[in-house]
Amino acid sequence: MSRLSENDDPGFVPVVFPVFGVDEISDNDEKDVERRGGKPLLAEDIGPDEIPFEQMKRALFLAETIRACLVMGCPAALVAQTTVRPQARAQTAPVPHSGDAADDPAVWIHPLQPDLSLILGTDKQGGLHSYNMDGSEHELVSDGTKPNNLDVLYGFKLDGRTADLAVAGARASQGRGVKVWAIDATTRRLSDVTAGGSIPVLGGKEPMGICGYRSAGSGRFYFSSTRTRARWSITN
After folding, report:
1. Does residue 13 sit in the same domain as residue 127?
2. Domain hosting residue 219, numbered range
3. What is the count of structural domains for the chain?
4. What are the pLDDT digits (tens) for 74-86?
5. What DSSP designation does 199 have?
6. Is the pTM of this model over 0.90?
7. What angle do CA 110, 184, 113 make, to 5 degrees?
8. What ranges in the chain are assigned the alpha helix state H?
9. Residue 172: CB partners within 8 Å, gap ≥ 6?
């Protein structure tokens, strides 16, 4: 897809033109990017004799498609009406601590009723908060653990039942590591299910950038931290 942005002309309404037959970036293109120190392959960076034939052909095809749409007009189904600018309907209640406190959000989606979903948010000076979809406070758990980054995992087998999990790094000096909470879909409450209170990682350093995922191959659950390339498995 090629998009004309409003930065090109302040009075121009952005229009999207579908371009069929244009390939993704090729291996040769990636090598060109690497050869130029990681910069994108731009026309002003290279001379005409350096532009690969295939790349020039794609550029000409794109230019011709845009010109044809501008001159003859595109079918209504192919033209976007206007740029959508979403506006917030509500906001969550503030966390009780000021300064650098409110940190990372995640949304848990209720399996049957989306309006009963929860917005989860960490207070780096307090605990893990959950909010209703209108932004009102629902619950505070593990106050004092100072959680930072947060993620949600679905469908974990826990003690013979299936549960969704919230996973977050805990910064408090006592129990520093990673914590796991089970989310009860019926009560919409979170309960700490971390064995030993926390999962020690990174030799006692603060875990940051927590991200969880489920392996499509093995079905096992993992989390990782941006502070290392290591990953940890979550087991029952």
Report:
1. no
2. 102-234
3. 2
4. 655 555 567 888 8
5. B
6. no
7. 20
8. 27-35, 53-72
9. 144, 145, 146
